[in-house]
Structure formats: structure tokens, C-alpha cells
Amino acid sequence: MTPDAMLWTSAEAAAATGGRAQGDWTVSGVSIDTRTIAPGDLFVALTDARDGHEFVAQALSRGAAAALVSRIPEGVAPDAPLLVVPDVLAGLEDLGRAGRARMTGKVIAITGSVGKTSTKDMARTALAGQGRIHAAEASYNNHWGVPLTLARMPADTDFAIIEIGMNHPGEIAPLARMARPHVAMITTVAAAHLEAFGAIDGIAREKGAIFQGLQPVGHAILPEDLPVTQILRDCADAAGAVVLGFGDHGAARPLRITAQDGALACHARITGETVTFTLATTGRHFAMNAVGVLAALSAVGADLAQAAAHLSDWQPPRGRGAVEDLGDIRLIDDAFNANPASLAAGLAMLADLSQGRRVAILGDMLELGADEVALHRAVADDPAMADVALVHCAGPLMRHLHEALPEDRRGLWAATAGDLAARAPDLISAGDIVLVKGSKSSRISMVVEALRARAAQDKG
């Protein structure tokens, strides 16, 4: 293993966690999944649906250099390369804190009800060529995802981008304190996880808790023009942050956004400097988050013009608003998650695409609390619905939207996404532009896969 590839030595990991290291080993990565483990990784035996200790022997056989455990698992040699700690999750947290402590670069933390992962990916793409970049994989933003990201961070990282999420009150502040960002950005605050918070004000206060982890004189990048913007400002002020708002009336704001051949050409002013950039999407919400990203990058000293130029290399990931030509239809795959704000953004994106009949295929929005029925019915009144010709719905909650739609726009309704996916050929026609959107647990992605299978069959 080359010095550049070495992430932790056994002595360093033991000092970070207070654990007992067996053997003299070095690791080049950190993994929690034997299915994707790489030779040289430290396997972390977390307990979730199953106890990770059951997989330690398998991890070592697949090339793991060591394992982080709370006991010597059955089937593992007593002298195996291990780091033994009282509690595995706490050990991972300690390793993450140590990873953050030894890093001398700049850290950006991102949270928000919508757009955390795509915004994190934008920031990573925009920073290309400006140093060594480290960012969270996928949506690793929870109680194990944040420490895992920090534990994987090379000591010589110049810029780190940490995604922080939540489902319940009290989750964000501890993760923000672990990440200790120089800049913290909130994409937006919307009706998500209302079941746990009761009202959007509570969600705003929880999102604003990210500022509690800021380094001294850190920057708070927050959305202007929201009903709860003042709550976010109060949270930032309480943390002693330098506040920078982004949005139509923010210090960082778009000047002009123009749709061009499935992309957006954007002109923006970022704290006095005018930049231009192009995004490979027609979603205006992506452009607004890109403005916030540029404000955050400016705050950590990145070259703004260079960052804006690299935004053209960013692509929306599958399931989060990516547009693809799928045989004889155009698909907006936005099936990873849904709440009223993100659904409104998806419908606006659908409405902005021309040259075809617009069709929406929608699954239930979950965790909306006592108002879930009313929030589903209200989608029928979204201004973008005027441009949608047909709406198919799946799930008991989306039945309320289905019943609220005018009859001429009411497509199929099915009890489950699987039932709707089985009727995929009946949902669309050649030339359609199709949005598929719903909460991940609604499994509306099954419709996306059915549409892809239909296109592959037609091609074959």
C-alpha cells in the first residue's frame, strides 16, 4: 500500500477510538457492506437489520485489512486483524471525528427538505480542478452516513462536502458538530417529515440546527423568500454566523434563466460578482440551488468563475430529476423521494418541457402527518397541472388526488405501484413526456423500471 493510499494505521485508529487493535495493519478505505467491500478496507460491523458481526469473516476473506468490532465474532481467528471497541457505532463516530480533526481543508455541510444530494453533487462537480475533493457517497447523510464519510476522508483533503439529513427532531445538530463545517447551506424548507414535526416551523428550526456546528465566523447559506426564512436567520444569528441569502431577492441571486435545448443557461450575481453557467436540466429549482452552491464555494475561497464553468459537467442522478430519452418517450425519473415542494418542482419541470403530451405518474407522498389527505388533494390545484394532459396515480393517498382531478385528466389509479407498473403500456403513448414521482417507500420506481423494460423490448 502506497503512503498516498493509506487512510488509517492500526495505531491511529486505536488512538482515535480508544479501542484495542489486534495486529499491525493499515487500511485504505472504510466499508459497512461486504457486497461492495474493496481489498484494504476497514470493515465496520454495524448492527441494522442484521448484526454486522455475522459478516466479519466474509469481509476478511474478501480482502478487508481489518474489522471494527465490539467482540471477536464466531468463525474469526482470535488473532485476526481487528479493532475492538465497546460499541461499533460509537467507534465509527470517534473515527469520523478524528478524520475531521486531522483535515486542514475547508468543509461545506448541506441540508434541506429537497435537493441535498443533487446539491452536494453539484458542489463536488463545480470544485473540479481546485484541489482534492471528498464528498459523501449517494445519500449517506444520517447517524452512520456522516461519520462514515468523515472516517473515509483523506487527511490531505482540500474541500469536503458533507450531506446531513434528518427524520426526527434532534438529529442534525450532533452531526453538524461532528462535521464542524466552515460553511453550512440549507437548500430549502418544505413539508417533509411533518409526521415527526407537526408543523413546518419545527422543520425549519431543525434544519437551522446545522449552524450550531459551524466553525467560528462560519458562513450560513440560506434560502430567501421562504415563509420560514426568518427562523433560519435567527438560527444562524444565534450561532454567530455570517449570513448569506440566495434566491430571487438574495445577495446571491439568478439574473436570468433561459431554457435551451433541454438545458438551462443561467446568469447570476454572487455577492457582487456576475457569473454565467449552464445546467444539463430544465428544472429551475436546480438552477436556484446552483446559485446557493456558488455562494457556498465563494465563502470557502474557491475560484468562482472556474466553479461556474464546471457546473456544465453536472448531471442530475437517476431518480432525482434526470431526463432521458427512452425509446419513443422522454422520461423525467424523479422517483427517489417526494413531498409537496419537490412534487411541485417536478411538475414545473414537466410543464417546461415541450414537444409532446405531458403525463404525470405519481406515487404516495409519505410522512406528511395529519394533513396528508389535504396535501395530496391540493396537488390538483398546482399551477403546472394546467399543462399536464394526464395523471396516473398509485397508492391510497394518491387516490385523493385522482378523485380531485378533472375527469379529462384522470388517468389510471392503482392500489400499488406494482399494479400500475404491470400496466405500463397503458400509461403512455409515443411522443409523451413522462414524469414519475413519489416517495421512495411508495416504490413508484417500479414504474420507471417497467417503462425502461418496455423501451428495451421495443428496441430488441
Fold blueprint:
Layout: E1 8-9, H1 10-17, E2 20-22, E3 26-27, E4 29-31, E5 41-44, H2 56-61, E6 66-69, E7 82-84, H3 88-102, E8 106-111, H4 116-126, E9 133-135, H5 145-151, E10 159-163, H6 172-179, E11 183-186, H7 194-197, H8 200-208, E12 219-223, H9 229-238, E13 242-246, E14 252-260, E15 263-270, E16 273-279, H10 284-299, H11 304-310, E17 322-326, E18 329-334, H12 340-352, E19 358-363, H13 372-378, E20 390-394, H14 398-404, E21 410-414, H15 417-421, H16 424-427, E22 433-437, H17 445-459
Parallel strand pairs: 4-5, 5-6, 6-7, 8-10, 8-11, 9-10, 11-12, 12-13, 18-22, 19-20, 19-22, 20-21
Antiparallel strand pairs: 1-3, 2-7, 14-15, 15-16, 17-18
Helix pairs in contact: 3-5, 4-10, 8-9, 13-14
Question: Could you write a compact summary of the structure shown?
Answer:
The protein is built from 17 helices and 22 strands. The protein has 460 residues and is α/β, with parallel strands linked by helices.
**First CA to last CA: what distance?**
46 Å
* CATH H-level homologous superfamily name of the largest domain: Mur-like, catalytic domain
Shape designation:
globular
Strand content: 15-25%
Radius of gyration, rounded? 23 Å
Mean pLDDT: 93
Enumerate the strands of the largest sheet in spatial order, edge to edge or round the barrel. Answer: 9-10-8-11-12-13
Helix content: 25-40%
Q: Biggest β-sheet, characterized? A: 6 strands, parallel
Class of secondary structure makeup: alpha/beta
CATH class of the largest domain: Alpha Beta
Assigned CATH architecture of the largest domain: 3-Layer(aba) Sandwich
Number of strands: 22
Pathway: Cell wall biogenesis; peptidoglycan biosynthesis
Family: Belongs to the MurCDEF family. MurF subfamily.
Organism: Paracoccus liaowanqingii
InterPro entries: Mur-like_cat_sf, Mur_ligase_C, Mur_ligase_C_dom_sf, Mur_ligase_cen, Mur_ligase_N, MurCDEF_CellWall_CoF430Synth, MurE/MurF_N, UDP-N-AcMur_synth
